[in-house]
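Incident review: delayed structure delivery

Summary: a single-chain prediction request sat in the queue longer than the usual turnaround. Root cause was a stuck worker, restarted by the on-call engineer. No data loss occurred. The affected request and its eventual output are reproduced below so the record is complete for anyone auditing the incident later.

Affected input:
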Amino acid sequence: MSFWQDIKNPNFSLAPMEDVSDTAFREVVLQTAQTGKLNLLYSEFTSVEGMCHPIGHDKVKHRLQINESEKALLKKKNVKLIAQIWGKDPEKYYKTAQYIATETDFDGIDINMGCPVKNVVKNGCCSALISQPELAKEIILATREASNLPLSVKTRIGYKQIVTESWVSHLLGMPLDALTIHGRIQKQMSEGMADWNEIAKAVRLRNEIAPSIKIIGNGDVESYEDGLEKCQSYGVDGVMVGRGIFKNPWFFHPDKGAVSPEEKLDLLQEHTRLFEATWGRTKNFAILRRFFKIYTSGIREASSLRNTLMTTCNAAEVYKAIAEYYNMLKKNEIA
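Output delivered after worker restart:
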């Protein structure tokens, strides 16, 4: 039986995000999450074309890496981990799904039919599949045939215009366990407000067509409490959180209360340690810089520390910058 049938409602998940949701950051999120408040984690977007390329495979498979320390936390906190894949060739989906099922420890597979990035959709991938329903069907069926892992799709309410009824009805006829719906069309990218009324329409369609498929809502979930309210108001089984995690790394710990500056900087150092221990020099350290604003937001002299951190090139320099920041605060207090 699919874990989707056993998962509690309302459930909460962290969205798959490019250069964000790698094994190091997922572990950070697991560390901060209150047990029972986070249910699902997703990998970074993983290209089936890259996975099936004789040379590209080794350059892409790092997106599916799961550290042993992350595995331990996933088990401890009963969180499921899902590999998200994208592309447009059903045969490559088949081969990639087989690889994930036999060579990795992921609990499920998710197909990306929602990414709006222009250089992706111009090649007919991700949200471009909304306007290619028959190809989308072939992809789903090929992935389903290749693996017994639970299967889900993440998509949007339309490509150039809203087509929730026709598109979601089409997907609900597929052998899926869950469907995550972002309440924007591709043309909007991340602009404007997500339309949760359209997500609610998808729930009503699900109730009529395929009651067993879980519906997850996505878009503008600002806090854990906001997520609970959206589940109640729009009837979704759960919510997926994206940008909200950048405002609060303790998003999935609603009982945490106020977070001290020391806790934020300790978490920054832990994330830095995990990133360097995992990737060494195989990944550009600059990727980590996008997280610095998260950890320095709301602390004293934040801009000064952030400016220093943005020049760092390795973990040692990050630790040094933080130590110097603390020394500066002490000197200011003495003066």
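Verification: The mean pLDDT is 96.
Action items: add queue-age alerting; document worker restart procedure.
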